Amino acid sequence: LAKTTQPISMDSYEGQEVNITCSHNNIATNDYITWYQQFPSQGPRFIIQGYKTKVTNEVASLFIPADRKSSTLSLPRVSLSDTAVYYCLVGDADYKLSFGAGTTVTVRA
Amino acid sequence: DGGITQSPKYLFRKEGQNVTLSCEQNLNHDAMYWYRQDPGQGLRLIYYSQIVNDFQKGDIAEGYSVSREKKESFPLTVTSAQKNPTAFYLCASSAGTGFSEQYFGPGTRLTVT
C-alpha cells in the first residue's frame, strides 16, 4: 500500500490558483491517484482521478509526472467555498485505500 | 435520488453498550466501506465488503463488527470492546475495485460517555 505525504495546510486568497502536491514514492504499477474534498462534518467528495500525465475536469486539474512518484492537484481561481480538507489517495485493487491527514486549504477574502 | 444514507446523524450511548450504525445505499454498488474519523485526522478503514455475504477487516477492525446480508445495507456495530468509540463514522460505497470513486454518506457522530 503506497503511503502518501501532503502538506498539512495551505493558505490562499480568492481568485488565486491553489496547487497541492502529494508524494507517493512507492506507488505501484496498477495504482491510480485520486483526490477527495471534505467539508467539516461531511463525508469526502470525489474531485478527480488519474493514472499519468494530466487530467482535467470542471473543477480541477491533476498533473502526474512520468515517474508517478508525485501528483499535483490544481484548483483554479478558488473561492471561499473551496476552504476544505483535500486528501490524496493512491488506490490498489485490494480495496484498501489510505486517507492520510490531508491538506487543509483556507481561502481568504 | 441515488445516494447513501446513514442514521442517525448523532448518537449518544453509555459506556459498555453495543450500538449499531445504519448505512443504506441505492446506487447498486457492490462494494461498501466503513471509516472512522477522529478530530483533525484522516479517515481510517474499519471494514469493507466487496460483495454480499463477504467482508474484510480494515486497519482498525478491533472492537467492531459488520454484516452484509443485502447489497443495499452494511450496518456497523460498535461493541463494548472498542476502547475509544467516540468518533465520526463514515460509510461509503463504490461500483468496483479499490480505486473506484467512493460515494460517502453524511456520517454519524457517536459519543460514548
Describe what this molecule looks like in 3D.
The complex is a heterodimer of chains A (109) and B (113). Chain A is an all-beta fold and 109 residues long. Chain A has no helices and 9 strands. Chain A has strands spanning 9-13, 18-23, 32-38, 45-50, 53-56, 61-64, 70-75, 84-91, 103-108. In chain A, the strands form 2 sheets. Chain A has a 5-stranded mixed beta sheet with strand order 1-9-8-3-4, with no helix packed on it. A 4-stranded antiparallel beta sheet of chain A has the order 2-7-6-5, with no helix packed on it. In chain A, a hairpin with a 5-residue loop joins strand 6 and strand 7. By secondary structure, chain B is mainly β. Chain B contains no helices and 11 strands. Chain B has strands at residues 4-7, 10-13, 19-25, 31-37, 43-49, 56-57, 64-66, 76-78, 87-94, 103-104, 108-112. In chain B, strands 2, 4, 5, 6, 9, 10 and 11 form a 7-stranded mixed beta sheet that branches. A 4-stranded antiparallel beta sheet of chain B has the order 1-3-8-7, with no helix packed on it. The radius of gyration of chain B is 13 Å and the shape is globular. Chain B starts with a strand and ends with a strand. The model of chain B has no long low-confidence stretch (mean pLDDT 92). The chains are: A mainly beta (109), B mainly beta (113).
Our estimate of the beta-strand percent of chain B is: over 45%
Mean of pLDDT of chain A: 91
Tally of separate helices of chain A: 0
Shape of chain A: globular
Helix percentage range of chain A: under 10%
H-E order of chain A: EEEEEEEEE
Structural category of chain A is mainly beta
In whole angstroms, the N-to-C terminal distance of chain A is 39 Å
Strand content of chain A: over 45%
Low-confidence stretches of chain A: none
List the quaternary state of the chains: heterodimer
Biggest sheet statistics of chain B: 7 strands, mixed
Q: Return Rg of chain B in Å.
A: 13 Å
User: What's the total number of strands of chain B?
Assistant: 11
